[in-house]
Amino acid sequence: MDLMDAIYSRRSVRSYTDQQVEKPVVESLIQAAVQAPSALNQQPWAFAVVQDGKLLAQYSNRVKAHVLKTLKPQSPLYNHREELANPEYNVFYNAGTLIIVCAKPEGVHAEEDCSLAAQNLMLAAHAMGLGTCPIGFARPWLNLARTKRALAIPQDYTVVFPVIVGYPMGDRPPVARREPEIVSWR
Ligand SMILES: Cc1cc2nc3c(=O)[nH]c(=O)nc-3n(C[C@H](O)[C@H](O)[C@H](O)COP(=O)(O)O)c2cc1C
């Protein structure tokens, strides 16, 4: 797939088939991720992969419970309370793979570096016929000390970008973009 086609046709995928993404494919996505630029070439990223379906279902419930417990009325997520309370709603959309991009403490711009890595991963996945979706909802729960312990994520690493991966089911409608605001061009 041509790069511009990939950029323009990638969509967040929220419906997946049962087909599991094979380990070598996940490894190749992580290799694509680490081709991203990083400040001072620090490459301050690390990855945790979850492919255990039972764990993903359990994590989805824990993420929802945590978000509901900590939600403040001023949060933009406040309007999503009903969705989060729905037992049918899986925050990972039943995808078979969750890749968690984590920032190492030494990174001077680690969040940006990790986000660039995640975008590489999502575009590479799309070019390979896979679907992805960032799951920001899961970030606060994934950053809890006990969750990091369970996932062998060192305590001084920060979960920056959880992204689900799987084989897409159905079509995705285009998502319109606003015209870019160019505030100056001197
Ligand atoms: C940092 C970040 C967090 C996101 N978190 C979620 C999420 O928790 N759940 C979800 O369904 N989509 C999530 N998204 C996907 C956005 O909703 C999506 O990118 C946006 O609607 C534009 O659609 P597109 O990706 O198909 O172009 C997230 C996107 C980003 C960049």
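^ flavin mononucleotide complex. The longest strand covers residues 158-166. The first helix runs from residue 3 to 9.
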